[in-house]
């Protein structure tokens, strides 16, 4: 994927752009699906409400509240989608750029040279991760903090590319 | 009752508008330009506007003054 907006140096090119695995998006979207289901269930039990409120008034209020609820769900779903898409990890021939979107208003961007990489650890800690082929990667750099990238796909491919670039940069 | 409901509805729509603006701002500020994420903004705004219109239509059909 060509990414000219990264202001790449001469002879630097993007090797891999990684996002978290689609299962993570599915897991976070389950909240929205559950809330939609809950909202529909709550308002669809009409018999209980009809005993308390006049059916004509109740139906008009339900239609109004459901439309507001749909607005909320739309915004929540879009926020989850944005958070998923903005959390990206870019590997170039010289750098690794880790854009960590932890929440809508919580964002951290880390960047380090592949030449400084000392050690890479990958882990696949759960059965789901094993089944869907994704996991966590910890990169230790010389004199800096550890970089932990969670729930990324193509773990071994990414590790191989980073190690090859690191070796190439160090020699 | 109608006036109170209308004020509360207005506050909700205003809050929704601010939150939506924040989402759109995030997309245009933080997304990599090569990422097609911004193509989702227009459908999101359109669906939001349709739902706001629908909610306003339903708001006007609630007999607010007979509730209490």
Structure description:
With 171 residues, chain A is of the alpha+beta class. Chain A has helices spanning 22-44, 46-50, 55-86, 127-132, 155-170; strands at 14-19, 88-92, 95-103, 106-113, 117-123, 134-141, 146-153. Chain A folds into 2 domains: 4-20 and 88-170, PH-domain like; 27-82. In chain A, strand 3 (95-103) and strand 4 (106-113) form a beta hairpin. Chain A starts with 13 loop residues before the first strand and ends with a helix. Chain B has 68 residues and is mainly alpha-helical. Chain B is built from 3 helices and no strands. Chain B has helices at 2-30, 41-60, 64-67. The longest helix of chain B has 29 residues, at 2-30. The termini of chain B are close together. The mean pLDDT of chain B is 88. At the A-B interface, helix 3 of A face helix 1 and helix 2 of B.
Derived from helix and strand composition plus strand pairing, the structural class of chain A reads alpha+beta
| Biggest beta sheet attributes of chain B | none
CATH topology name of the largest domain in chain A: PH-domain like
Beta-strand percentage range of chain B: under 5%
Transmembrane segments (chain B): 6-28, 40-60
Keywords (chain B): Membrane, Transmembrane, Transmembrane helix
Pfam families (chain A): bPH_2 (PF03703)
Transmembrane segments (chain A): 29-49, 61-84
Give a short summary of the structure:
The complex is a heterodimer of chains A (171) and B (68). Chain A has helices at 22-44, 46-50, 55-86, 127-132, 155-170, and strands spanning 14-19, 88-92, 95-103, 106-113, 117-123, 134-141, 146-153.
List keywords for this structure.
heterodimer; A: 171 residues; alpha+beta; PH-domain like; 2 domains; four-stranded antiparallel β-sheet; three-stranded antiparallel β-sheet; 5 helices; elongated; B: 68 residues; mainly alpha; 3 helices; transmembrane helix (chain B); transmembrane (chain B); membrane (chain B); YdbS-like PH domain-containing protein (chain A)
